[in-house]
Specification:
It contains 9 helices and 6 strands. Strands 1, 2, 3, 4, 5 and 6 form a 6-stranded parallel sheet that branches. Strand 4, helix 7 and strand 5 form a beta-alpha-beta unit. The chain is globular and about 50 Å long. The structure holds flavin mononucleotide. Flavin mononucleotide (FMN) binds next to helix 1 and strand 4. Flavin mononucleotide binds next to helix 1 and strand 4. Keywords: Oxidoreductase. Pfam families: FMN_red.
Length: about 200
């Protein structure tokens, strides 16, 4: 049993990052962590969602998932963010969530959170690493401890070999083209293990 509390925070328009978040939950729970899966608040107008069947389906599929708050960040020892690429960057929904944590940051409550990132894009080189780096830049400002997977497990190679964090490519039909489940679970376990060490310093 671990004494680590992990918040997995995602944004997803067509379900990919929600799936990555659910795999991460399985991996972290297998490591004994207490886990919350949370979504960031949707900012897009309802009319835009209504025009897109996949988006509408994801909003419905995640309707029971709680929206992440500052209290969740404060609660957690470790954070895993899962986010699609938007023009090689974080979606505004995820950025807005990070930008709403100013009060937490100003009171030192983001320091020493152990953080890891996952991402997806439509193209194999569509900006997955850049998106994770954007996240990690903010995390450095938070004083968080970044637990990138590196090449710490063979499953990472099966998922495309991204040492920044697990990333996937999503085809036109919305399917992931990599076999990423084990890499995600490994990343989650590793994040929990690093957080255990940090917590017990
Ligand atoms: C506005 C917008 C910008 C996007 N920019 C990129 C991009 O720069 N590169 C890319 O490969 N895919 C891009 N995509 C595709 C998304 O990254 C892809 O649909 C997403 O990773 C799927 O994740 P999800 O199912 O969790 O929403 C973009 C999609 C949208 C809607």
């Amino acid at each position: 049993m671990s004494n680590v509390k992990l918040a997995i925070i995602f944004y997803s328009m067509s379900g990919t990052n929600y799936q990555l978040a659910k795999w991460a939950k399985e991996g972290a729970e297998a490591q004994g962590a207490e886990v919350k899966v949370l979504k960031v608040e949707e900012l897009a107008p309802q009319s835009a969602i209504e025009e897109n069947e996949a988006w509408k389906a994801t909003v419905e599929a995640t309707s029971d998932v709680p929206v992440a708050t500052s209290d969740d960040i404060e609660w957690a020892d470790a954070l895993i963010f899962s986010t699609p690429t938007r023009f090689g960057n974080l979606p505004s929904q995820m950025k807005q969530f990070l930008d709403m944590q100013g009060a937490l940051w100003a009171t030192g409550k983001t320091v020493n959170k152990v953080v890891s990132g996952m991402s997806s894009a439509q193209n194999p080189h569509g900006g997955q690493e850049a998106t994770i780096l954007s996240l990690y830049t903010s995390m450095m400002h938070w004083g968080a401890i970044i637990a990138a997977p590196g090449y710490s497990d063979g499953s990472i190679f099966a998922a495309g070999g991204n040492p920044y964090g697990t990333t996937v490519t999503v085809d036109q039909d919305g399917n992931m083209t990599e076999d990423a489940e084990e890499a995600v679970k490994h990343q989650a376990k590793r994040t929990v293990s690093v957080a255990e060490g940090v917590k017990n310093i």
